[in-house]
Every structure is written in C-alpha cells, then in structure tokens.
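Support request, please re-run this one:
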Amino acid sequence: MTERKDIRVVILGDSIVGAAGDPRGMGWVGRVASKTPATEPRIDIFALPVPSETSGQLSERWKEEAGRRFSTATENRLVIALGNTDPAAGISISRSRLNIATILDDCRRAGIETFLVGPTPHHNPALNNDVEHLATGYEDVAARRGVTFVDCFRPLVGHSGWNEELAASEHHLPGQVGHGLIAWLVLNRGWYEWLGIDPEN
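Re-run finished. Output below.
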C-alpha cells in the first residue's frame, strides 16, 4: 500500500472563516480541525478570511493565497466557504455562479481537490430569498462538477439559536452556537470522505 502524502487544506471565505463572534475563539474551522485526525497523513489547515468578501473578490485572490501555502510534496485541497454578500453587492446569481465555477475548473486542471461550504442566512431577512437562490445556484455548480457541497442555508435559516445570535451581535456574526452548527454540518456532510480519512483513527 502506497503511503499517502501529507495534506494541506486552504480555507477561503469571508469573516465567518475566522473565529470572529465566537467567545471561545475557535470558530467553525477550529471545531472542524479539532475533530480531524491530523496524523497518517498529516493534515495542515490554513484559514484565510477576508471580511465582506464577494465571489468576485474571492476569484481574484484565491490562486495567489492558496498557491503560497500549497506544495508539490503534498496533497493540495481547497475549501471555499461561500459568502452571502453578493446579492447586497448587486452581483447577479449568474455572475456569482460563474466566479465559483471558474475557480473549480481551474482547481481541477491543477489537480486541487475542492469542497464548498454554502452561504449562511443573511442577518437581514429581506435578503434571504436572494441568498437561498444563490445557495441553490452554487449547489448546482458543485453538482455538475462532482464537488461536495454543504448546504448551510436551509438548515440554519429557521434555527432559533442561529437567529438569536445574529440578532444579538453588533456585527451580525454567529457566536458559539452558530459556529458549532456550521462545524456539525461540515463534519457530517462529507468532510471525512472528502479527505479520505477515518475519523476513528
């Protein structure tokens, strides 16, 4: 049996990729990392948030940001935590889809495995109809390419804990409950299978 290379995972997205809003300072990425066996193979996770980032801005930075952390000696993997800011920024769903599709296609050509975490509900309920359509569009882009997509919109839009934290946050960020919910969704919707690891080992 061939020994696997070490794995480097770069996670890109807006401020929700960081631990902002979480009093425990872990965020959902920290919670996922803590539940991810990091030996045999070694797995290094690099989270690179940019607050209020649109899909267009993400498409402009991903290659340089990820490339500086990838290595020819490792399995290189990219997680995109898709933001919900495009509708408020006036970006059409077709343009949002194209931005992400282009990244996924570039990654496939470069041999980089990808994983998408869908947008979360917006703190402004009036925008959630657009965010739902955005999430559906992203899910279709992923499905057409055989890429794992984790829906965070539908499980959270009516969740009382999620909505209470957003309402109580001055900066409209999820707290301990919200980050925990995202981590649960990621861990239980294909994370281990995507990495090709057994969580029990």
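The chain is about 45% helix and 15% strand. The chain has a mean pLDDT of 95.
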